[in-house]
Amino acid sequence: MVTSILRPLSMAFQHVFRRTFTVKYPFKVLKPAERYRGRLMLRSIDGCIGCGLCSWVCPTKAILVVQEAERKAPSLDLGRCCMCGLCVEICPSPLALTFTSAYELCEYDKERLIYQPWRLSQPPAEPPREYVRVKDIDEKRLISHGR
Amino acid sequence: MQVSWGPQHPASGHLRFILDVDGDSVLNLEPDVGYTHRGIEKLTENRTYLQNIPVVERINSYCDATNTVLGYIEVVEELLECEVPERARFIRVIMAEMNRIASHLYWLCLMSISVGFETMLMWTMNERELFLDLFEMITGARITYSALRPGGVRYDIPHGFEEVATKYLNHFERRLKDYYKMIFENSTFRLRTIGVGSISSSDAIKLGLVGPCLRASGVATDVRKDEPYEVYQNFDFNIPVEKAGDAYARSLIRFHEMEESVSIIRQALRSIPEGPIRKRVPLVVPKGEAYSRVEAARGELGYYLVANGTDKPYRLKVSTPSFRNMAALPYITRNVTIADIPAIYMSLDLIPLDIDR
Amino acid sequence: MTELDRNIAEGIKSHFADVVLEARVQRDLRIVVTVEKEHILEVARYISSEVGFDHPASVAAVDYPMQGKIEVVYYIWSTSKRTFLALKTAIPRAEPKLNSLTPVWSGVDFHEREIYEMFGVSFTGHPNLRGLLLQEDWEGPPPLRKDFKLRTKLERG
Ligand code: SF4
Ligand code: SF4
Predict the structure, then answer these.
(1) Which of A99-108, A131-140, C32-41 has the lowest mean pLDDT?
(2) Which of B27, B129, B274, B294 is the most buried (most CB within 10 A)?
(3) What is the CATH number of the domain that holds A48?
(4) What ipTM is given for this predicted complex?
(5) B306 and C132 in contact by Cβ < 8 A?
């Protein structure tokens, strides 16, 4: 009885001396994986052929193909997008839709969530800060995201 | 006296219990569900088969997305009668088992805080993170993957995945031993769960319980063995079965299932064949009906699809494991004390999202 | 396995020659038995106690407004025979009434409540036939019937 309470205590106590697993978030951020599906981006407006397939396949109707100057191009409602990737998969043009690794997508204004084509073709702004990646797990069962 | 428990209670999730109590003992419990009802069965009737993948994923998105979609993919593929490349089937199994572990870790976290054990909350979240990292490597998403497609999978396993996965699995297996010492040998946890909320095997069958809840009562039923889907017949694994049928037995089953899942992932990584990962399939599903069963983390998950020869389902009925396990709740809470309800509820691993659809 | 399935299907068919409309094997581990709606309770009693289908898996309803019927399907697993059976019946859409199978399989309780709510099928003999998922003051046609239309307007510029 007593040992079964003391042993977990001692096991938990060992963790006091280990390095932390969490990251001090706004100052340090984890680098997303290579395939990370963040905000959508149009590689270039000219790359889009205006076929409208992305709008057809989108399950949440987040994409609407609108008239942009002389051509048609997609506009995105981020409030609806669920990052499922169906639009990127179906897009026939290699120069049009793609994912970026941006995941801090809050806006103060609902209107700003709607990305018109020109804004969709801008790469997301990256604030200057430190990226860390999962480090090795060493023999002493330590796992950490770096210092 | 009637007491309302939830839907904003930390130990109930988005689910309400109406308790008839006499002093401290519960005379009757009635679950009142539907707080997260999204009408997914109706939504699927208005979307194409491809668009339905992210939709059905939301049935149980934050725990068990792969297994939930796998059932849907199975039922569509049965009507399409399409061939699936072998490599894709292995990737599906790897993802499904990883999701089972992630889901059980999530359950262990909830179970341990419901009995007041907050260390395990931190530990399990820590290890679940590793599996979410692996998912991020494969699919680019951490919770809702949308990675399976009729006719294959969308994403191939990336370069170097095997080493990372092996490293994480080794680490995880060592941690599982710690978990066992930490929680299953802990006298407080045992006092809170042994003999609490027990259900006999005949009742469990009659009520239609599934998954770990059924196996904890001594019924060895697992869809992966009874009706092997994907490539489960290639792997060597056991189905943990317990006799007692109480909250402790249910917890122990899930713990052993994590060990089995690790072994399945190892075998799959070792024997995964090379080759294509996806075949083109038509958008239109021929007329017909089919019922598919997969073993999700919470138990058997069934999809009943009626197709009418268009690109949208005519009717898609989902029979979720939590919905079926909920039937046990009024039975096993008769004459328990109120303080036992969190442990009983969490040991059934009910997810309100899964119940309500 | 298919041999066992076929034997079960034929056994049910021969036992209820005039009540069971059809008993066939759809594929491995999928037996489909179609019965007349008046006799569903006795057929269910027989297949649960004599044939050994004891583990209720799902109850589904499908609405066919053109044919004026609602199909109700019970899915049952047998823990002893290790096979899966669908018990099907059709009821008229205008008067959706069916004998509840809760006396046979108590696990179908919540499933039947869901069908009652979503399709308006009333199950006679159900101990507690009330709504389950929708809000208490829900008004309108049963939502999973085909004449319930979703609003799908997209409101943005
Ligand atoms: S990622 Fe999915 S939800 Fe988002 S715009 Fe593309 S198809 Fe629509
Ligand atoms: S983004 Fe791609 S799919 Fe969408 S309209 Fe342009 S080319 Fe077509």
Answers:
(1) A131-140
(2) B294
(3) 3.30.70.3270
(4) 0.87
(5) no
Domains of chain C: 3-156 (3.30.460.80)
Identify which of C155, C71, C151, C117 has the alpha carbon closest to the alpha carbon of residue B43: C151
Sequence-ordered list of residues with C-beta below 8 angstroms from that of B324, at least 6 positions apart, any chain: B208, B209, B210, B299, B300, C57, C107
Angle between helix B247-271 and B161-179 (nearest 10): 160
The residue whose two tokens read 């690790």 is B262
| Of A86, A32, A78, residue with least CA distance to A59 | A86
Is residue A134 in a domain? yes
Q: What does residue B280 show for φ and ψ, rounded to 5 degrees?
A: -70, 135
Q: What is the pLDDT of residues B276-289, one digit of tens each?
A: 888 888 888 888 88
Residue A50: Cβ-neighbour burial (10 angstroms; 0-12, 13-18, 19+)? middle
Tell whether A147 is covered by a domain.
no
Alpha helices in A15-126 (DSSP H): 53-57, 86-90, 117-120
pTM: 0.89
Q: What is the pLDDT of residue A133?
A: 64
Report CB contact under 8 Å: C107, B208.
yes
In a domain, A132, yes or no: yes
Which site among B304, B332, B350, B355 would you substitute to test the C interface, given the most C Cβ atoms closer than 10 Å to its Cβ?
A: B304
Ligand 1 neighbourhood includes A85 CB (under 6 angstroms): yes
Q: What tokens does A98 get?
A: 């793609």
Residue of B nearest to C64 (CA): B314
Give the side-chain half-sphere CA count within 13 A for C20: 21
B59 touches chain C (CB under 8 A): no
Angle of the B86-114 helix axis to the B247-271 helix axis, nearest 10: 150
Which residue has the CA at smallest separation from atom 3 of ligand 2? A91
Q: What are the residue boundaries of the structural domains of chain B, listed by start?
A: 2-356
Instruction: Give the per-residue pLDDT at C157.
Output: 44
- On whether the CB atoms of residues A143 and A22 are closer than 8 A, the answer is no
Could you give the 3-state DSSP secondary structure of residue B270? helix
Q: What's B2-356's CATH class?
A: mainly alpha
Answer yes or no: are the C-beta atoms of C118 and C144 closer than 8 Å.
yes
Number of compact structural domains in chain A: 1
pLDDT at C35: 86
CA of A116 to the centre of ligand 1 (A): 15
The arithmetic mean of pLDDT across residues B229-235, rounded, is: 86
- Chosen from C151, C154, C155 to mutate, greatest number of chain A CBs within 10 A: C154
pLDDT per residue as tens digits for the range C18-73: 777 777 887 888 888 888 888 888 888 888 888 888 888 889 888 888 888 888 99
At residue C26, the pLDDT reads 78
User: Which residues on B lie below 8 Å from C67 (Cβ)?
Assistant: none
Quote the domain boundaries for residue A93. 20-140
Among left, alpha and beta (phi > 0; psi -120 to 50; other), residue B349 is left
Continuous segment of H or E residues that includes residue A30 = strand A28-30
Task: Please tell me the predicted confidence (pLDDT) of residue A135.
Answer: 56
Phi, psi of A111, rounded to the nearest 5 degrees: -60, -35
* DSSP class per residue in C50-94: TS---EEEEEEEEEETTTTEEEEEEEEEETTTTEEEEEEEEEESS
**Number of the ligand 2 atom closest to the C-alpha atom of A42:** 1
Compute, in degrees rounded to 10, the torsion defined by CA atoms B214, B233, C31, B304.
Answer: 70
Kindly list the protein residues whose Cβ atom lies closer than 6 A to any atom of ligand 2.
A 48-54, 65, 74, 91-93, 96-97
Chain C residues with CB under 8 Å of B205 CB are 54-55, 79
End-to-end CA distance of chain B: 31
Residue B63 has pLDDT above 70, yes or no: yes
